[in-house]
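for the writeup, i need someone to sanity check this before i put it in the appendix. the sequnce is what the collaborator sent (i think, or maybe the updated version? ugh). structure was predicted straight from it, no edits. if anything looks off just tell me and ill rerun, i have time this weekend
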Amino acid sequence: MHCEWIHCTCSWYGHPHWDTVAVIINEDELGFRGMSAARALLFFAFKYKDSEYPCALVHWYNTYGHSCDSKTGMWTCRPHLAVLHLDSLLHGIHLIPMYDSKALPCSQGLAHYNNLDVFTAFYVNCFADYHSNEILF
C-alpha cells in the first residue's frame, strides 16, 4: 500500500472524526498478535538536533495486566494515551462494537461519531477490506 488517509480532526462536518489504526508493537509476531488497536487523536511533528520526528497521539484499546483482578474477577481496562512515531502505524482498521443482551445505549446519544466512546469492547474487523483481511489474522 502506498498511501492511506487517516483522519484526525475535532470537527468533520460538525463532529469529531478520529480514525482507528493498527499499531505495530512486536514485529516478530504474525498478524494482529503483534499489533494493537488505537484511535489517532493528533498528528504532529517536532525537531530535535536537526532531525524531524513525525508523531501521533493515540488512545489505546487494550487491557492491563496478565490476569483478572483478584478482588473483582474482571479484566482491568483503562484509557491510555501515548505518543508514537508515525512509522509504527500500519493500517487504518474498523472496530465493531460488541453488543450484549442489554439495550443499546441510546440514552447517551449514540451516533456514528461517538460509538467508540459509548461502547466498552470492540471486535477488530478483519473483513473490512482486502488489506485488513491480509494483515489482521
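Residues 130-135 form the longest helix (6 residues). The first strand starts at residue 8 and ends at 12.
thx in advance!!
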